[in-house]
């Protein structure tokens, strides 16, 4: 560092400034003289004639750079330095950086009387004025640089020697680099080697088939293949033929998997997706796994229930959260369709438990769900494990959300008479009866029923209104609807509400107002749920509001964006009374 206090980053920044302005035939050096730092720019291309004199730097050095250096200091917040410019010889230009608030050494001042300026006298007045001047220059620098760059590049004096004799102009050097790609040809060149025997250096045996491979291609695409082919600790490493043990599903689809390593493309369909996905996961080909996941998520969107059922267990096994979420939504929203399929009784217990534990199920009522669980428990394939299966599944059924008549049917039903389940059912039904008895008085008794066991799912029986989405007559009109009063399910609906609908493009706004008749102790705790379905009653989307305590002084507002596709036909509005 040539001078204590000199900004160390300035020299490097100035070199960058020269490069950016294509001033490529100058080099920079720095030294100090007392309180002055000198940046010396020396012409290194061409031979210059002699000639001294206090000639402006602009005759030798691109003039716009002085202003640019001013900005450089300001951008680095170095506001206590000033710049003066001069020419000291035929091939040298100098920029002097001086602290504007310091007193310059007398010897230095005598040696350079032409450099004396107000900046050589200390004082706050001048320091503030210098800062303001720099700020003004900074504000106008864009215009100045544009003008002076053009003049500097075209001014004959900037290309002349010290006494006006012409010299060769500096050659502009292109310093910007670019990356050129030839991806298509590269992939095409690699793909032509797929399964070519004459240039293969390894054979992959999969079941009864053999594939001719290339170690480099396999190793660059898969860490697993790299280990198998080159790690000496691997039993088959270095062998000309490697036997791969794959499931029947993976054997069927190994060829498109292997082709992807050469072509970066894969032909996939609903029937091949699982096999290709498992191979991508096993051999850690993450790009292919990502592509498979996207395809499977797209093809498990509601109402594609069958795909969701087929792929749910694979998504769980491979910890694919996006696919799990997509499958879960589609299955949960269309549970009653699942109950009609033969696959329902063949589902494993973990799947059934996952579904029962999902609070977003869309079903007619809890009793319908219980009947499906009862059929599953009493089916021939599960009856032998009735005791264990009942302990895992029955506590997930929300008996308190059944009507009293439905609770009684459970109590007298077949499952309640079985030795493996009757004691558990009796215990759960007692909790349901307790809820029905105490919930209306929970404020007085200071008790809560906040567990999921006591809360309603998305029951279609809670429907208060159904809107055909292409019907514009509803917009801006109030609709009167009714619910039962309080959180205890009842067939009597005496709670009055009003709903208004507004639509703007694909955005819908619902406002729900509560009347006194729907309140208990001056309030009603609810959640509004919208179920969007097609003409075949297949659910496409479910949207739920925040839980809201409605009273005489407020209302619930719900703004949602609904699907604009042609399949969405009906919007069913549910009002769910919630316990505290």
UniProtKB/TrEMBL annotation:
Compositional bias ranges of the Basic residues kind: 122-131
InterPro entries named in the record: BACK, BTB-POZ/Galectin-3-binding, BTB/POZ_dom, SKP1/BTB/POZ_sf
Segments for region (Disordered): 104-174
Top-level taxon: Eukaryota
UniProt domain BTB: residue ranges: 200-270
PROSITE patterns recorded: BTB
Protein name: BTB domain-containing protein
């Amino acid at each position: 560092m040539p001078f204590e206090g000199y900004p160390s980053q300035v020299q490097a920044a100035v070199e960058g400034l020269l490069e950016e302005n294509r001033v490529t035939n100058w080099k920079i050096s720095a030294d100090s003289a007392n309180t002055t730092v000198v940046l010396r720019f020396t012409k290194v291309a061409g031979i210059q004639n002699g000639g001294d004199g206090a000639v402006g730097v602009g005759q030798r050095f691109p003039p716009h750079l002085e202003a640019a250096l001013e900005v450089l200091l300001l951008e680095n917040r170095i506001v206590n330095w000033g710049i003066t410019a001069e020419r000291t010889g035929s091939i040298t230009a100098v920029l002097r950086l001086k602290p504007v608030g310091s007193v310059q050494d007398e010897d230095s001042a005598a040696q350079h009387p032409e450099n004396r300026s107000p900046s050589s006298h200390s004082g706050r007045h001048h320091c503030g004025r210098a800062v303001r001047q720099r700020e003004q220059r900074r504000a106008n620098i864009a215009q100045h640089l544009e003008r002076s760059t053009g003049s500097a590049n075209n001014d004959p004096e900037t290309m002349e020697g010290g006494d006006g004799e012409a010299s060769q102009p500096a050659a502009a050097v292109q310093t910007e680099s670019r990356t050129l790609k030839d991806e298509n040809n590269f992939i095409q060149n690699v793909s032509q080697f797929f399964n070519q025997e004459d240039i293969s250096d390894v054979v992959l045996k999969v079941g009864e088939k053999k594939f001719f491979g290339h170690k480099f291609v396999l190793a660059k695409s898969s860490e697993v293949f790299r280990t198998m082919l080159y790690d000496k600790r691997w039993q088959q490493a270095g062998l000309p033929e490697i036997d791969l043990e794959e499931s029947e599903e993976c054997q069927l689809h190994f060829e498109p998997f292997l082709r992807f390593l050469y072509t970066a493309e894969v032909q996939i369909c609903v029937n091949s997706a699982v096999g290709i996905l498992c191979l991508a996961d096993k051999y850690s080909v993450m790009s292919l796994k990502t592509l498979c996941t996207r395809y499977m998520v797209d093809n498990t969107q509601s109402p594609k229930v069958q795909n969701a059922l087929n792929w749910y267990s694979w998504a769980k096994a491979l910890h694919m959260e996006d696919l799990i979420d997509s499958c879960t939504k589609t299955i949960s929203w269309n549970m009653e369709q699942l109950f009609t399929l033969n696959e329902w009784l063949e589902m494993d217990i973990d799947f059934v438990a996952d579904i029962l534990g999902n609070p977003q199920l869309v079903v007619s009522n809890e009793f319908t769900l219980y009947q499906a669980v009862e059929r599953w428990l009493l089916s021939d394939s599960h009856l032998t494990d009735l005791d264990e299966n009942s302990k895992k599944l029955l506590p997930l059924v929300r008996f308190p959300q059944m009507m009293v008549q439905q609770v009684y049917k459970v109590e007298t039903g077949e499952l309640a008479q079985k030795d493996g389940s009757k004691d558990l059912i009796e215990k759960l039904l007692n909790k349901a009866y307790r809820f029905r008895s105490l919930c209306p008085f929970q404020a007085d008794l200071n008790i809560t029923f906040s567990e999921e066991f006591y809360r309603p799912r998305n029951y279609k029986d809670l429907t208060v209104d159904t809107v055909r989405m292409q019907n514009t007559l509803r917009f801006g009109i109030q609709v009167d609807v009714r619910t039962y009063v309080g959180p205890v399910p009842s067939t009597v609906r005496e709670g009055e509400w009003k709903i208004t609908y507004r639509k703007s493009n694909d955005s819908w706004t619902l406002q729900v107002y509560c009347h006194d008749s729907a309140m208990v102790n001056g309030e009603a705790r609810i959640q509004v749920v919208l179920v969007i379905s097609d003409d075949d009653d297949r659910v496409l989307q479910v949207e739920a509001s925040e839980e809201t305590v409605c009273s005489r002084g407020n209302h619930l507002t719900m703004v949602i964006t609904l699907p604009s596709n042609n399949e969405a036909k009906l919007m069913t509005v549910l009002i769910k009374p919630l316990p505290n």
